[in-house]
Amino acid sequence: MKPQKPLIFLTNDDGYNAKGLNALIDALRPMARMMVVAPETAQSGMSHAITMGSPLFLRNVRQEEDLEIYACSGTPVDSVKMAFDSLLTEMPVLALSGINHGSNSAVSVIYSGTMGAAMECGLYNIPSIGFSLLDHRAEADFTGAVYYALRIIDRILRQEEIDLPMCLNVNIPNIPVDQIRGIRVCRQNKGYWREEFERRQDPRGRDYYWLTGVFLNQEEHAEDTDECALRNGYVSIVPMQIDLTNYQQLDRMERWQW
Amino acid sequence: MKPQKPLIFLTNDDGYNAKGLNALIDALRPMARMMVVAPETAQSGMSHAITMGSPLFLRNVRQEEDLEIYACSGTPVDSVKMAFDSLLTEMPVLALSGINHGSNSAVSVIYSGTMGAAMECGLYNIPSIGFSLLDHRAEADFTGAVYYALRIIDRILRQEEIDLPMCLNVNIPNIPVDQIRGIRVCRQNKGYWREEFERRQDPRGRDYYWLTGVFLNQEEHAEDTDECALRNGYVSIVPMQIDLTNYQQLDRMERWQW
Hints:
By secondary structure, chain A is of the alpha/beta class. In chain A, 24% of the residues lie in helices and 28% in strands. The first copy, chain A, has six helices and 13 strands.
């Protein structure tokens, strides 16, 4: 009997029919069985949101040998929960989120639906990876992103001992694949987004605002960050915390008089 | 000239007219000027979500000496961004989120709109605190929660040196104030939510699912966690990370052959 191909779970935040997700599915077909549960609609910026006030719908959009695709009416994290707590009858060896259309480097990781879903997968005690290409356009070219995604997936699957939970934030520069200089494991760049709210008036005279942010880099010259790696043409990998405790501050604050 | 009272920013995820937020506003009136920007509607479980696909509306619901309240059509984090990047002309000394109706201890912190907003405030380089009472009902009794919130706020304002960014996750047990045994600085309890999707059929015969979770505690016997503190009648304070890099894993993975 032929050994079965490994089962991989996939999701994203751009919706089940986004180009980035389907590029990854196509590339993985020869080597994996896949279960895909992804949002019905675009859910960018949904972070770790879950749907509490309304019910969820699930729609089977593809059912083939070694490939099942479902569209979920909720958020990326809802999709992960439905997959792991309701659909999957076998634990996947790996969970993937993306490939996202647009960067999730630095502090963007906390707003990202792609990374919210990846972190949620990490809570099911399997390695999880979120992939993002630095091009937000629907028609972005995923050639380089897919090439490096496969290399990183292969590397994780070959690793004998993995410290779980593991959730990796992988960003890929938007340059031709032969110009990408390699892979760097790095830390999250410090910085934040500031919004320039664009104010308009609706036909009834009510003001409304469009959120249009700019990223302010607090450490332009640091050389060990994801921003720096990407700027220099490298793929960045940031391993993420799932325990959000700030242990340094905890040590200090325990000694305070309360 | 009388010295001006300090300016405090407030938000929440239960909506601008929730009882928990208004209990905190009432208690702070004698000692602070306040700017409040909170969601128009309930936004529980919205985590760090931002609104990208539609514009935001802002409504002034109260304008008094030392107290301005705005309702924002978006998420808790949208409310924070509108406040800091569009409304505030003076930097507050402190940002508060809550008091939330319901617990945000352990891993709930990553799904919580209350804590998403608190973390966002932390990115504006002022101390921020999210408060949550372990009672999700609209009519919950906030007496004990307000008493301890004021003690903690006072303690932070009196502290001479604060390591910024600082974002505290404070949970208050739902017992009478005189039975609360004190305050404990602790770490986030390891564990996760597993969903039991309740399946129903709509009048047209379509299946739909309600997300109904149970918390699985991975360390029932640990004594330094927020869950343990709360179970024993203490108020829990967990200082939170804003940098999500997992530095231990980073050290190990840097040595991998890529």
